[in-house]
Write a structure and sequence with these properties.
The chain has one domain (21-81). The protein has helices at 6-9, 16-45, 51-81. The protein is elongated, with a radius of gyration of 18 Å. The chain is built from three helices and no strands. The termini are far apart. It has 82 residues and is mainly α.
Length: 82
């Protein structure tokens, strides 16, 4: 049994613009996945989380912020050029 209803998909493929949007946001998606991995490792370690575990979370948080800022800057440049 599939949880995806075929009527919702409608047999349509993503457009080139959709794929380009995903590709442009992929660095942010990857950074957020790294952050999630670091947070999960820290939660699983519980009270035994090391300094390195917490440092990994902080670095991942900073990376997400950097990538978000870069994407925002690119969007601002594109909006200004259009």
């Amino acid at each position: 049994m599939s949880i995806i209803h075929l009527s919702a998909v409608g047999g349509q493929e993503p457009s080139a613009a959709d794929l380009a949007g995903i590709e442009s946001e992929w660095p942010l998606i990857a950074a957020e996945l790294d952050l999630l991995d670091a947070q999960i490792a820290c939660v699983n370690a519980g009270p035994y989380a090391s300094v390195l575990d917490r440092r990994r979370v902080r670095r991942a948080e900073r990376r997400v912020l950097v990538v978000r800022r870069e994407l925002a800057d690119c969007e601002a440049v594109e909006d200004g050029a259009a």
